[in-house]
Amino acid sequence: MEIINSVKELKAKVSALRSDNKTVGLVPTMGALHAGHASLVSRSVKENDATVVSVFVNPTQFNDKKDLQAYPRTLEADCALLESIGADYVFAPSVEEVYPEPDTRTFSYPPTDTVMEGAFRPGHFNGVCQIVSKLFMFVEPDRAYFGEKDFQQIAVIKAMVADYVAQDAEWAKRLDICPCPIVREEDGLALSSRNTLLADNERAIAPNIYKALKASVEYSKTHTVEETKQFAIEEINAVEGLEVQYYDIVNALTLESVASWDDAEHIQGCITVFCGATPIRLIDNINYK
């Protein structure tokens, strides 16, 4: 496995792979890797001739400087994990390497990027599109892998790629976005790099998020969308130390809120919960139909 720090070297490595007709998979990450990330990388290794994993805490997607500073950084451990599961290249650049000058590009795909996380974290998805589009242009992968814990992010990235296809970008025409299932702890907590920030007492209560979501699926069979939404919120808020920032039940394709279970063929519940005194912001989602 090779660790690459410069865009120039990354492009040269990928160009050599292309000249040999090798397929390339990309797994974009912000590091602090866990078994969820490992599942993405393992899938890429199986499905491509070469796998590139980016490890980069992207500053443009943080609307809270304290959140950016607190985000865990564990590059040495990340590289050891990636080597053990067969990654070929780790792209671990500096901020200056990725952004030699300010990125002033704007991306807009309403309602996909304006609801839920888009509403509560202004500029977040613009920053996501900035870095992911850069990575796509650096690597020009055949496939890119994203975890479904970030359900809304996948929808935004798909919209961005469709936009580039419309602009006739060759890399976008070839690219396949590959969503991968959420990986959970035995107690149901969705794996997240942010989980490492939880104190023991906070970690103990965090699984109540998924517990409530699962209960709400059963509850939904005999109740309306609005009743189901309120049920999940009340179940979580009843746990001392947990507070729901938002919970919405949406069309899984457009991310627009649904009023009835008949409003869409596929329906997803998406939630963000503050956990603990700090607090740590945890996201999760669940499928209703």
Overview of this structure, please?
Helix 7 (124-139) packs across helix 8 and helix 11 (208-220) packs antiparallel against helix 12 (225-237). The strands form two sheets. The chain has a six-stranded parallel β-sheet with strand order 1-4-3-2-5-6, with helices on both faces. 38% of the residues are buried. The mean pLDDT is 97. It folds into two domains: 2-180, 3-Layer(aba) Sandwich (Rossmann fold); 193-287, Pantoate-beta-alanine ligase, C-terminal domain (Pantoate--beta-alanine Ligase, Chain: A,domain 2). 41% of the residues lie in helices and 19% in strands. It is globular. It has helices at residues 7-19, 35-47, 65-70, 75-84, 95-98, 117-120, 124-139, 151-166, 170-174, 200-205, 208-220, 225-237; strands spanning 2-4, 24-29, 50-55, 89-91, 143-147, 176-180, 242-251, 267-275, 280-287. Helix 2 (35-47) links the parallel strand 2 (24-29) and strand 3 (50-55). It is an alpha/beta fold and 289 residues long.
What oligomeric state best describes the polypeptide chains here? single chain
* CATH domain fold name of the largest domain: Rossmann fold
Domains (count): 2
The SS-based structural class is alpha/beta
Please, what is the CATH homologous superfamily of the largest domain?
HUPs
Strand content: 15-25%
Major sheet details: 6 strands, parallel
